[in-house]
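Entry 14. Ran structure prediction on the chain below.
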Amino acid sequence: MNKTVFLESHNLKNRNGGLGVFNYELIKALSNQNLDKLSITLNNKDTASLKAEFGTQFSYKKYTSLQRHKLFRITKKYDVWHSMNQNTKVEPRVNPKKYILTVHDVNFVEEESNDLNSKVNLLFKEKINRADSIVYISNYAKQMTHQYFDTKGIEEHVIYNGNTIQEFIDISNLTNPFGQGKPFLFTIGDFIERKNFISIIKMMEITDDFNLIIAGNNDKSYGHFIRDYIKSNKLEHKVFLAGKISNAQKQYYLKNCTAFVFPSIREGFGLPIIEAMTFGKPVFLSTLTSLPEVGGDAAFYWKDFDPNYMKETLFGQLDNFEKNKPEFEIKLKQRAATFSWDTAAQEYLNLYRG
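Output, structure tokens:
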């Protein structure tokens, strides 16, 4: 008899965000594994597209927002319930034999409320109390969870995310619409304050040798702030907001940028770092949170965000990179290759079967 596994995967809908990417890439990797004696159900609003891609490898439950409310919780009892996001409000009505929780970060404690009895923190506490096994996407995420919450007696694991670039897309027909052929720095992410895009924009105020291209959803309030800052400081000629971009466009910018810059101040993992390293590009990161854990000794780091210091570090390390380019490129690509979705999927399957 097959063991039944429910993946609470409704965040699949947003492939432009980290949670959506995690959901999709892990499920895709699971589909490539031996799923013998497992019956895995995906929870998603768009079941038709999932069926078209994965067929009978999985079963499908249609997600509706009503599932978030206690009265309409899913009634079927599963052997394993995997909550793929620490903030989802979708929970089982009947406790499964094993409840697995993946924690990406606990930024909500510092960004929303540090009152551990607030609604968002109580929701997370409920998940911890229900969990038989907690998986963290980085040691940093584990450390921060321990700082604020009690997980004693719960089985814990760290399973790193994989590399989302598993094949190179033909980008020969693409061009850079920004900056008239000037070399550029590149970064990508949701426009939220913790991404700290403002620090590299302030660096660009005193940097004339490069343009800066920032990709990602900039419709939020931080995006409005960034646009206003660029305009009021007359930086439109060298700081460009690309908005949401396709995978092909992302690979184009990663392949053609001089460097990838990622000064985030709170990050549970940082998938774009691995993508940039895959192209052998120098990556410049903050020393904060999980970023050194991902970049390792293959990355360059900013210890603070003073614009002059950031510029000096950038130019100094770019000079170092160019003088030793073959060695650096090998090191970066080898670092990127250590992160594998197939490896992550195998480790999750061990938990499902255990």
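The mean pLDDT is 96. Will compare against last week's run tomorrow.
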